[in-house]
C-alpha cells in the first residue's frame, strides 16, 4: 500500500495544503499535524519500534480523518481533494509497515476491519486471501472471512468454499465444523423462506435438499473428524436449536445409537453382509484376465496396435475384480513406459492371485 505519493510525501504536506486551501483546516492546525507526524515517524524509526507505536499512529490518523469529514459535512462542501483520502490511505500504509515486522493475526483483523469500514470490498477480499495464506491454521480467521463473504457480500458459494478450505487445515476443530453447520442451516433457512414467499413449486429431487440432507451430511462428517465427539455433538445440538424443521439434521447429530434409545422396540440393525469367498474357478478366471490386461497394456504402450487396444479395452471392461490390472492398462495406454510402476503392480496382483489359487 505504500505508493510513490507516500514515499515522496510521507507526512502528507500536499494533503494539508489542500485542506487548508479549502478551509477545512487552519494554518496552525496544519503545522501542529506536521509536528505530530514527525514525532510518530521518529518513534517508528527507532531500532526496535513497538507495535503500540504503530497503533497510536494509526489511531491518530483515523481521528484526524473523522474531524475532516465532520467539518466537510458541516460546511456542506462536495468538492474533493487529495486531503480527503490521505489519512485513511496513510493508515493502510502503517498497517502494511507493521505487518512487515509482526505477522500478527490481530493486526490482520484490524486492517480488514478498517478496509471494510471504508467500503473497499476488493481490498478486503485481497487482505483475507493474504491473511489466510499466512495463518491457515487459525480457525477464527476462516470464520471471519466466510462471515464477511456471506453476510456482507451475499456470496454463499464463496463462504462455503472458504469454510471447506479452512477445514482442510483444521479438520479436527469442533468450532469450525460448528460454524460450517451453522452456515448451511442459515442458508437452507434462507432458501426455504424465499421459496415460501415466492410460492415456488418444488422441483423433483428438491424434497431431500429442503429436508436438510446437506447440513446432515456436514454434521456426520464433523462428528467423524473431531476427537471430542460428545462435545461436538452438544455444539451441534445447540446450533440446531436456533432453527426450525431440522429433523434430518438432528437425526444425523444424535446418531443411530440415540435413535435406538428413543425407540425401545426398534429392531437391532442388521449385521453387515459378509463378503462371499470366491471359488478357485473364479480366481483362475481373474488370473487369466490379469495376464491379458498386462499383456495388452504392454502391446498398447509399444506399438499402439488397434487389435492390442481392443484386447486391452476388453480386459479392462471384463475385469472388475482386478483394479490394479485395470490401472496398469489405463496409465500405460495414456503413454506411460512399458516398465513403469503400474505394470509392476499388475504383476504383483497376478502373483497374489496365483498364490491364493495354489493355497
List the helices and strands and how they pair.
Layout: H1 4-8, H2 13-21, H3 27-44, H4 51-75, H5 86-101, H6 105-117, H7 121-134, H8 139-152, H9 156-169, H10 174-198, H11 206-211, H12 213-225, H13 229-240, H14 247-262, H15 280-303, H16 306-317, H17 323-333, H18 341-358
Helix pairs in contact: 3-4, 4-5, 5-6, 6-7, 7-8, 8-9, 9-10, 10-12, 10-13, 12-13, 12-14, 13-14, 15-16, 15-17, 15-18, 16-17, 17-18
Please tell me about this protein's structure.
It is built from 18 helices and no strands. The protein is mainly α. It has 3 domains: 4-102; 183-199 and 206-262, no CATH class; 280-358, no CATH class. Helix 6 (105-117) packs antiparallel against helix 7. The protein is elongated and about 100 Å long. The model is unreliable at 1-7 and 259-264 (pLDDT under 50).
Q: Rg to the nearest angstrom?
A: 33 Å
Report the sheet with the most strands, covering strand number, pairing sense and barrel closure.
none
The end-to-end distance, rounded to whole angstroms, is 72 Å
> Which secondary-structure class do the elements indicate?
mainly alpha
Shape: elongated
- Estimated helix fraction: over 70%
Quaternary structure state of the chains depicted: single chain
* Number of helical regions: 18
* N to C succession of SSEs: HHHHHHHHHHHHHHHHHH
In total, the number of domains comes to 3
Residue stretches low in confidence (pLDDT < 50, at least 5 long) are: 1-7, 259-264
Strand content: under 5%
Number of strands: 0
**Mean pLDDT reading:** 82
Amino acid at each position: 500500500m505504500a505508493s510513490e505519493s507516500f514515499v515522496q510525501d510521507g507526512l502528507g504536506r500536499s494533503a494539508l495544503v489542500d485542506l487548508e486551501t479549502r478551509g477545512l483546516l487552519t494554518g496552525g492546525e496544519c503545522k501542529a499535524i506536521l509536528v505530530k507526524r514527525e514525532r510518530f515517524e521518529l518513534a517508528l524509526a527507532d531500532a526496535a519500534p513497538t507495535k503500540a507505536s504503530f497503533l497510536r499512529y494509526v489511531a491518530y490518523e483515523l481521528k484526524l480523518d473523522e474531524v475532516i469529514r465532520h467539518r466537510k459535512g458541516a460546511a456542506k462542501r462536495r468538492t474533493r481533494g487529495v486531503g480527503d483520502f490521505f489519512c485513511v490511505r496513510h493508515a493502510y500504509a502503517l498497517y502494511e509497515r507493521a505487518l512487515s515486522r509482526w505477522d500478527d493475526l490481530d493486526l490482520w483483523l484490524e486492517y480488514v476491519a478498517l478496509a471494510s469500514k471504508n467500503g473497499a470490498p476488493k481490498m478486503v477480499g485481497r487482505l483475507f486471501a493474504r491473511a489466510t495464506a499466512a495463518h491457515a491454521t487459525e480457525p477464527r480467521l476462516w470464520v471471519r472471512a466466510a462471515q464477511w463473504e456471506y453476510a456482507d457480500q451475499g456470496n454463499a458459494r464463496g463462504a462455503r468454499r472458504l469454510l471447506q478450505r479452512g477445514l482442510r487445515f483444521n479438520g479436527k476443530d469442533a468450532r469450525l465444523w460448528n460454524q460450517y453447520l451453522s452456515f448451511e442451516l442459515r442458508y437452507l433457512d434462507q432458501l426455504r423462506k424465499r421459496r415460501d414467499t415466492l410460492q415456488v413449486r418444488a422441483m423433483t429431487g428438491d424434497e431431500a435438499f429442503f429436508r436438510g440432507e446437506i447440513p446432515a451430511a456436514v454434521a456426520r462428517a464433523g462428528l467423524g473428524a473431531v476427537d471430542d465427539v460428545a462435545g461436538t455433538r452438544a455444539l451441534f445440538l445447540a446450533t440446531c436449536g436456533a432453527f426450525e424443521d431440522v429433523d434430518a439434521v438432528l437425526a444425523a447429530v444424535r446418531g443411530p445409537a440415540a435413535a435406538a434409545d428413543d425407540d425401545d422396540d426398534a429392531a437391532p440393525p442388521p449385521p453387515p453382509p459378509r463378503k462371499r469367498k470366491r471359488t478357485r474357478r473364479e480366481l483362475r478366471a481373474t488370473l487369466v484376465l490379469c495376464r491379458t490386461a498386462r499383456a495388452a497394456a504392454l502391446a498398447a504402450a509399444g506399438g499402439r496396435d488397434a487389435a492390442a487396444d481392443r484386447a486391452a479395452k476388453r480386459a479392462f471392461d471384463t475385469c472388475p475384480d482386478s483394479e490394479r490390472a485395470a490401472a496398469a492398462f489405463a496409465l500405460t495406454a495414456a503413454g506411460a513406459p512399458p516398465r513403469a510402476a503400474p505394470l509392476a503392480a499388475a504383476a504383483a496382483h497376478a502373483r497374489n492371485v496365483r498364490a491364493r489359487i495354489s493355497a
